[in-house]
Structure formats: C-alpha cells, structure tokens
Design a protein that fits this description.
The protein is α/β, with parallel strands linked by helices. The chain has helices spanning 11-24, 44-59, 83-86, 88-95, 113-125, 128-138, 161-164, 167-178, 191-201, 207-221, 239-247, 264-274; strands at 2-4, 28-30, 63-68, 102-106, 155-158, 184-185, 227-232, 254-258. The chain is globular, with a radius of gyration of 20 Å. This is DUF2229 domain-containing protein.
C-alpha cells in the first residue's frame, strides 16, 4: 500500500503526525521533490501543488492524502470564492479526472483527529489490532507545532497561512526586504490566537480568512512594527479584497504585492513612508 503526501498547503501543521501514523501501519509514504511545472493561469503555490500531484500520479500511489484546510467550514465569502482554498479534493478532481482515491484529513492536530485516523487505518489495513497499536505509538505527536521563529524586524508580513509556513516563501520575503535594508517580522502567534485577533477586527467565515485578518490586527498593534507588507499569491479577488478592507481600518503604512512579481518599487515606497 502506497500513500502519496504533499508538501505545502499547511503540511507543516498536520503531516508529521500522519506520516508517522501511516508508517506505523506499515504503509509506504511517498513524497516527491519536483520543480513546479507552469500550469497557467494558476498561482505559484497551486502550480507547485499540481506538479507534485502529477508526479505522484505517475508513480502510481494507491491513495493521496489531502488536508481539509477549513475544518469542514463552508462559505461563499472571502477565500471561499477560491476553490483551492475551500476544497482541494473537489478542485483537483476537476483538474485530474484520474486522481487516485483521496484520504482527506484535518489540517490541524487535536485529539479529535484520532477518530479520523482510526477510520483511515481501518480502510488501509482492515486490521483493528494493528490500527490500535499504531495509534498508541503516535498519540504523542498530536500537539500542534509551535509557530516558526521570526526575525525581530520592523516590517510586518501578512500572507495566507499556507504561504507563511513555507521556508522558501520566508526566504523570498527576507531577501527582497534585505535589498532595501529592511527586516521582516512574521506573525508569531498560534493559529487559534490569530483567529481571535481577526475576530476583533471584523468577522470572517473561513478559518484561513480569520487568520489572515488576525495577522493584520496583531502586527498593526505591535510597537516594533512600523509598516505592513501584504503578500498575495495571485492578483485577483478575493484575498486582496480582504486585505484592503482590513488595512483601511488601520493607520500604519502598507503595500500590497503579488508573489512572483517585482516588489522593489513598492518596498522603496514603503521604506520611505516608514521613515526607515
């Protein structure tokens, strides 16, 4: 039995537990390292996702492990207008008619994940005793990972959670800011705390939207943060619209930029407004 897993789209939050669990079940976990194919008109993170799915399909995995990014919440507002954010499985099925069978799992860890893990284990092994032993071995991995460390910079960086948790994205931001002599400050609160911050600014339905708005609110109230860099993975609505609505309620200098484009003029202007 071979199960393909994906890097990105919140994999840092859930994949450590699920990889360990699948291995404890005796299942082969298949990862691929491929350069992102250019699947226009999709944004860069989706291009990388599609490249991985293509490679796993070629390798002939029996199942594909996919995260439920929104914890079962559905909405037609905000990020709910983006099918990749709302339902990866349904969207991939439209793109890949021959997609391997999908194992959908929560994108965040808690004791409630054990129920879904039991279901997946029984499906893959048909062996209740093996499932029980495997769950006992990995139960200690159910704690959510701590937030990534952040440089103590003066530019608060806001982006979708699936971007901010990628080291390659953080390096891109750090390098771009460094060319202007600036240092980033990435949000360093757990997801649930960021959602609480977002609720203080204005309500959103989807968990990832609440986190996004929470980043704006949290970074804006930090004294060391003198300006905000808002990074989107694509230039069309809805995410840029959410960010524009959020910053209209706040006072610090900010710039909205798109991943994959040249940010330097925007960063120069931001630096000037910050008085840096």
């Amino acid at each position: 039995m071979r199960v393909g897993v994906l890097r990105g789209f919140l994999s840092r939050r859930y994949l450590g537990f699920w990889e360990a669990y699948l291995k404890a079940l005796g299942v082969e976990v298949v990862r691929v390292e491929v350069p992102p194919a250019r699947h226009q008109p999709y944004c860069l993170p989706v291009q990388e996702l599609l490249a991985q799915v293509e490679a796993l399909k070629v390798q002939g995995v029996d199942y594909l492990l996919l995260p439920d990014l929104q914890g079962g919440v559905e909405s037609e507002k905000g990020g709910g207008q983006c099918p990749w954010l709302l339902d990866l499985e349904a969207t991939l099925l439209r793109y890949f008619p021959g997609l391997p069978p999908v194992l959908k799992v929560p994108a965040e860890l808690s004791e409630r994940v054990l129920g879904r893990a039991g279901e997946v284990g029984h499906l893959l092994t048909q062996n209740p005793m093996l499932v029980g032993r495997a769950l006992d071995r990995v139960r200690g991995l159910l704690k959510p990972p701590p937030p990534l460390k952040t440089p103590l910079g003066s530019v608060g960086v806001v982006a979708q959670p699936y971007l901010l948790e990628e080291e390659s994205f953080r390096r891109t931001v750090e390098e771009a800011l460094a060319r202007e002599g600036l240092i980033p400050y990435f949000p360093d609160l757990p997801p649930e705390k960021l959602r609480e911050e977002g609720d203080r600014l204005f309500p959103m339905d989807l968990p990832t939207d609440r986190e996004l708005v929470g980043m704006v609110h949290y970074l804006h109230r930090l004294g060391r943060v003198r300006g905000l860099l808002l990074v989107v993975s694509y230039a069309c609505p809805p995410i840029p619209g959410i960010l524009r609505k959020a910053v209209r309620r706040l006072a610090k200098p900010h710039r909205l930029v798109t991943l994959g484009e040249d940010w330097q003029e925007a960063l120069k202007a931001l630096k000037e407004e910050m008085g840096a």
